[in-house]
Here is the input.
Amino acid sequence: MPIQRLKNAKRIVVKVGSNVLTAANGLNMEAVESISAQISTLIDRGVEVLFVSSGAMASGLRKLGLSKRPDEIPKRQAIAAVGQSGLMNAYEAAFGRFNKRVAQILLTSEDLNSRKRYLNARNTLNTLLEWKVVPIINENDTVMVEEIKLGDNDNLSAMITLLMDADFLINLTDIDGLYTKDPRVHADAELIPEVDGFKKELENFASNIPGALGRGGMLSKIKAAKKVTAAGVPMIIARGTKPKVLLDLFSGKPRGTYFAPQERKLNRRKCWIAYTLTPKGSLTLDAGAAKAVLHGGKSLLPSGVIAVSGEFNEGAPASLVNPAGETIGIGLVNYSAADIRAIMGLKTGQIADRLGAKPYDEVIHRDNLVITERE
Here is the structure.
């Protein structure tokens, strides 16, 4: 099944991490050349490839003659700004050897949280693919602050996969896949060849396999896999420094860890709500309401809300939290935080008496609500 799915894939996302692209003195040019050559071969075979690449920091350190990343955020952003041009120059030269043109796409969460900007990004990327240009995508580290950062390129690659309706996500890192322990430390670590469903045990394994560079370790890759597989898209984690790893995967050779997709996939809009939007606050539900939205397919009514956290307006994304404090979903609210506080615990027939009007029966309609964790 994993082999056939990949052979049938018409559009894929390839993400390459810092550990693959970084050498002792800056960019790993051998890796840049190898990955560019493999992606070019896939494009020549008719596969559309969206490329999410780390490496700006490594490139910047090399150009500036620095030996390590500074702790200060402005300095790190400045190094990334210097390095981004070097990274793109390296890719432009590498892809140019195969008569491929490249385009730089830098994003923040604001670009994907706004539905209009989200669709604009999608249209731009579709146009680049139609023109046979390789989109090279990264977070805009130069302006990134806590409020607008995407987190890491593992998360960004998952978002791009969902944004572009890709058929497969391939995440290339510096180890062969998900192991029971960190294979760089434990000789008895065992590779997990396939994951079908996410158990707490998997996150425990991943938590103990950190990334040496960049912001994403194995746990962030597991979280990315949870997002795309929920949308019906498979993902593979494999070693990016292996010669011809992408071509091996497409030829059917077993490499890395395969994450099987869920059979019931979310539609495109619900994927955007669940895995792209940043919650502006949270609503705590009583046990009955939590059960109704989790297992009954119900909308969230004001009677089921027992607490509101944060300040937000109508239409904002808010997390749904069960009585135990666990996040179980996310949705777009019909009322502001202040209005929800005023009507929480009330029956729908009492909303107009409290607010002077009742534009909606539901705090969050089921069509705008996505369950992200099952109890």
About this structure: The domain at 279-371 is CATH 2.30.130.10 (Archaeosine Trna-guanine Transglycosylase; Chain: A, domain 4). The chain has two domains: 2-266, 279-371. The two ends are 29 Å apart (CA to CA). Residues 73-96 form the longest helix (24 residues).
